[in-house]
Amino acid sequence: MVLVALLLFVLLPVAIATTFQPYPRHPSTKTINCDHFLDNDVSETMESDERVRMYDPIEQNLPMDCLSIITRFPYRTKPRSDYEGNFPIAYVRIVFTDYYYLETIFRATYEPQNYYCYFVDSSSNELFHKRINALASCFPNVVVSNVELDLDSNGTNTNAAVIACLEELVKFKDWKYVIMQQNHDVPIKTNREIVDIFKILNGANDIGCTPPTVHIPEADWSMKGMQFFKNKTLNKTIKPNDVYPTKAAMQASVSREAVEYILNELDLSTFLETLSEIYYASDEYLWATLSCNDNFELPGGFTRECFPHGNSFTRTSVWTDTKNVYKCKSKQSRHDICIYGLEDIYKFAVSHDIFANKIMPDFDFGALECTIERLYNRSNGLMYPREGLDLQYYENLSQVRYMASRIANGGIRPDNGTFICGP
């Protein structure tokens, strides 16, 4: 299948994006004035009948052979620049529904030097599985995990699914960072901008560090109790031996060094089994616990000395509690997180985050198309007011400054109390 994909890329000049081509919007969204919503702070909430809703086409209406997939969109076959080509990025995406939506997002993030792994919920329907596998078969840098796990919105088995994809991705030798995503995360930064940000991180991971918000299972929360290290001696000798369960979004950006350390040095089986007892958001405790407990010495990790600092920029979302409800102009939510509509996408231009959660096609597909079209245009050199990176924002993040301090100290952590954790 990889050979077929390579041959198609060579033999199909129509699919090669060598010169700028307008973004191929879906016919249902062609009348939307995207600039109106992207460049203006629209105050009113749209009416339901003003929104374009998208559902996956029936099988015969969406051809999934490689010729059809590659000609639906002008995929690149060469990096946009040596700068981007020399800094490959990997993606893990946990998926369960909305194939056409996912293909639309794939178009926006696809770069030939990057790598992509999909983990498909085993309870998803057969056609969805078939389509994801067909997409992957057309690109040499896309894989689908063959591990089967049932997933749900409580986070059940999500950690194991992520690990399964990471085990696939480390087979590719040269990527620098990996971004963990869920089904309805939408990119709002270009590949070039993400490379700029990750270069500023300089090995630091983008993982939050906050207290648990649910009851944590009774267990021996120590290195010895969880048997974290494959080297069993370390589980007894590491000081301090206690481990503090720590929470952050599942979406994270993690260095390759950290991933290899986790896969090669750690045994997470007891830890993941314990996390599975958490009744809600069990997927939010893996990365934060490993990163924020100093005694793991995770490459690019943070520190409990700064608990609960360490804001994450990998994903932005709006929680629709009473304090933030005004920030969700669509007035729609799922699991207490705003579902962005066209009236919300104005804010993406000034966001420091690289993905937004969530846009859903059965609520407002136009919001996705406008977001992706703007990203496509910016990736191809078109400039807009309000766009661009505030590099100083990333330089001042606690986790970035902490990493810089360690590098300056020859890898040694700053003495307790000497590092200023804020903002």
From TrEMBL:
What is the taxonomic lineage of the source species? Eukaryota, Metazoa, Ecdysozoa, Nematoda, Chromadorea
Per the UniProt record, the source organism is: Panagrellus redivivus
Q: Kindly list the GO CC terms recorded for this protein.
A: membrane
Q: Could you tell me what this protein is called?
A: Core-2/I-Branching enzyme
Residues of the signal peptide: 1-17
In terms of superkingdom, the source organism counts as Eukaryota
Stated membrane topology is: Single-pass type II membrane protein
Q: Does the keyword Hydrolase apply?
A: no
Give the Gene Ontology MF terms in alphabetical order.
glycosyltransferase activity
Where in or outside the cell it occurs: the entry states: Membrane
Q: Which UniProt keywords apply?
A: Glycoprotein, Glycosyltransferase, Membrane, Signal, Transferase
Q: What is its main location?
A: membrane
Q: Which PANTHER family match?
A: CORE-2_I-BRANCHING ENZYME (PTHR46671:SF7), PROTEIN CBG11221 (PTHR46671)
